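Technical annex, item 7. During the second reporting period the consortium partners agreed on a shared format for inverse folding records so that results from different sites could be compared directly. Each record opens with the tokenized structure and is followed by the designed sequence. A conforming record, contributed by the partner at site C, is shown below for reference.
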């Protein structure tokens, strides 16, 4: 069983550097488009509506209603020192859990996910979703996951228009991929089982299929290493290689895709699990973690070698250049698991 963390864990202790920088860019751009007061009000209304929608449409779990799953969530929240959110069971056939923070923090777990995922990875997923609540990601995550639905509502809801620019979408989706890195850290702190967190990422990357028993974390780790090597080679090559790295089909697809990259997430969390920062957080040495973080310059590279930044910046750069071309005709994107 994981040991309960010392009280006082906050987003500032766990957020990945890329997440911090990306979220700041999203907040500043959104507030600039519609004003901070309006934006804050929308956040509060979205949180209330999310709770009411789940009251109407899903089953709220508790000590006498789906108590096994409810207590699983309660235990994980307790390890983190968080209040247990409202837990809803959704009969949806998709595998994507949903969260919303605020006064009525909610976690919605699809029954398909609960039925299909082994217990260890399921606990990791719950910890991951609670990470979004801890880090204050929920409202921005909602925007990222439903951006194309908002496009369809632009003529009905007056406030939607200002945030529908292609430029804002690129910034938002770029941040969304990075937010998962922080949520993975919270998952590891919550369950204190690296193998279970790694298995949950393998599950996202294809382990949910009927051939999942034939897949391994080791092979996915090797895949991430190959991706890093190929990315480094392209960026250090000649002009043709560098142009190719920007215009490759993979990069173009990722511009409008909010889905975080499982192979890169696996590499990042594995590195962080061996770090002094993770050890200090487990030991409750929060002040030391903050002191070390405040010494760091304002950089955009992650703690190791900047691999995620290089891959992500390619997609973000292409998005900025092609936003006018794709603004009207790009197909809808349906992101999956966060």
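Designed sequence (site C submission):
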């Amino acid at each position: 069983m994981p040991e309960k963390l010392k009280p006082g864990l906050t987003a500032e202790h766990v957020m990945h550097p890329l997440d911090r920088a990306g979220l700041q860019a999203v907040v500043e751009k959104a507030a600039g488009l519609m004003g901070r007061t309006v934006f804050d009000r929308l956040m509060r209304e979205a949180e209330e509506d999310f709770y009411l929608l789940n009251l109407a449409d899903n089953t709220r779990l508790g000590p006498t209603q789906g108590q096994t799953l409810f207590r699983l969530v309660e235990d994980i929240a307790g390890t983190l020192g968080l209040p247990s959110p409202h837990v809803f069971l959704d009969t949806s056939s998709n595998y994507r859990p949903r969260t919303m923070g605020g006064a009525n923090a909610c976690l919605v777990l699809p029954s398909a996910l609960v039925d299909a995922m082994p217990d260890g990875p399921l606990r990791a997923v719950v910890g991951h979703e609670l990470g979004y609540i801890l880090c204050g990601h929920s409202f921005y995550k909602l925007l990222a996951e439903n951006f194309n639905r908002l496009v369809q509502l632009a003529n009905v809801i007056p406030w939607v228009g200002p945030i529908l620019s292609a430029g804002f979408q690129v910034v938002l989706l770029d941040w969304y991929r990075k937010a998962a890195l922080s949520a993975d850290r919270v998952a590891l702190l919550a369950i204190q089982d690296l193998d279970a967190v790694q298995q949950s990422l393998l599950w996202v990357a294809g382990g949910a299929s009927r051939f999942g028993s034939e897949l391994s974390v080791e092979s996915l780790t090797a895949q991430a290493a190959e991706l890093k090597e190929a990315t480094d080679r392209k960026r250090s090559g000649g002009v043709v290689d560098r142009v190719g790295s920007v215009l490759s089909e993979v990069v173009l697809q990722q511009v409008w895709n909010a889905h975080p990259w499982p192979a890169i997430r696996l590499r990042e969390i594995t590195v962080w699990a061996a770090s002094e920062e993770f050890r200090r957080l487990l030991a409750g040495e929060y002040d030391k973690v903050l002191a070390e973080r405040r010494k760091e310059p304002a950089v955009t590279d992650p703690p190791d070698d900047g691999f995620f930044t290089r891959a992500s910046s390619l997609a973000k750069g292409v998005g900025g250049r092609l936003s006018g071309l794709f603004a009207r005709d790009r197909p809808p994107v349906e992101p999956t698991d966060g």
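The beta strands are 59-60, 86-90, 98-100, 106-110. The longest strand covers residues 86-90. All partners now use this format for quarterly exchanges.
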